[in-house]
Specification:
With 124 residues, the protein is mainly α. Helix content is 63%, strand content 0%. The protein starts with 12 loop residues before the first helix and ends in a 10-residue tail after the last helix.
Length: 124
């Protein structure tokens, strides 16, 4: 269900960032939330996400059983939470950074060269 902690509408990214700040502050976790530690935690959570797909066929990865889907959803949420927290600590506007990176990728991967290809831009 896509609702905020209060059960209302979904949080914006900015609201999520504030909720994470409060969550960490309430628990006195800022002392542990250095960019290095957050980047490590993000990587660990991404690895936990990967575990749910390890040794599965591509086709099986697109139709997960409900219990596995729920676990994957939790891991994706963990990845997002650590990413938002890391960006906050480094004063990076995630949406602005993603928008800029999408524009960069559009130049690196022009449709006429990249369509239907899995090659890296340096291989075109």
């Amino acid at each position: 269900m896509n609702t905020s902690l209060s059960g209302e509408r979904p949080m914006s990214l900015e609201e999520l960032r504030g909720a994470l700040r409060r969550f960490a502050s309430d628990r006195d976790w800022d002392q542990f939330h250095s960019p290095k530690n957050l980047a490590i935690a993000l990587s660990v959570e991404a690895a936990e996400l990967l575990e749910h797909f390890q040794w599965t066929l591509d086709a099986d990865s697109t139709s997960l059983a409900p219990d596995r889907h729920a676990k994957v959803q939790e891991e994706i949420a963990d990845v997002l939470l650590y990413l938002v927290r890391l960006a906050d600590k480094l004063n990076i506007d995630l949406l602005a950074a993603a928008t800029e990176k999408l524009q960069i990728n559009a130049v690196k991967y022009p449709v006429e060269k990249a369509r239907g290809s899995s090659k890296k831009y340096t291989e075109f």
